[in-house]
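User: Can you help me understand a structure? I only have the sequence.
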Amino acid sequence: MLVLSWLGAIAACLGYGVSSVLQSVAAKRSAEVVGLTGIVLIIKQVPYLLGLAADTIAFTGNVVALQRLPLFLVQSIVAGSVGVTAVIASLRGARLSWKDWTSLAILGLGLVLLCVTAVPTAATQISLIDDWIILLASIVPLVVGLVGFRMKNRASAILMSCAAGLGFSGVALASRGIGATGISWSLLSDPLLWAIIVHGGIAIGFFTVALQRDAVTLVTAITLVFEVVVPSLIGIMLFGDAIAPGFTPLAIAGFALAIGGAVLLSRFSE
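Assistant: Let's start by predicting it. Here is the structure, written out as tokens:
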């Protein structure tokens, strides 16, 4: 099962990276058309549909990874998908500067440090009350996002990016919780499954609107920081996610490097 979790984390990283490229290609092909017509033109394109398929594979890999790997490791690996996007952009002809290659190296080093310091283990099973709290906590990103939606200028995009990051955090926490209870037909009545759906819908919605109101680099960077930091900290307190004894400083350094490298590379999400 541990091997499957590692493979799932790798699949999530690669899947999200490839998806970003495919969906970006589809969006640019319809860049001249705005409004509902533009959205329809985008989603009808083969690259966009392939991107959705890659997203589905990535999400499945993410859930599998959280069966046995701690949140701070999996979320950092998923954030590393911007590195995959950057490499693909380079292969497609984009010119990477020395700063970009340095950022890739920083991201890679951070992930290596996290891999060697994380303790692979199943999440501690939480109570049904905690399950419901994770679901009901979706009101937080919803309220933050709605406030941002009613605002204008950059502040609007910033708040909706925060809401998206919090929503994706809820998805990660619920996925980790499901990893502790196991996957069966009873999952259909599990609050954590509905938490994934609700948090995910809120996150995707506000992330999409935020992209329409400001630069993709700003939106992606803010969202990345929230969706990595928030669930990672909660995972340690709630699910018993652990760092190897004596390696805490190294893990913190790896965490900071991974986030920093991902944020610096977030421009490749365009």
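Now, to help you interpret it: Confidence is low (pLDDT under 50) at residues 31-35. The chain has two domains: 1-120+262-270, 122-240. Let me know which part you'd like to focus on.
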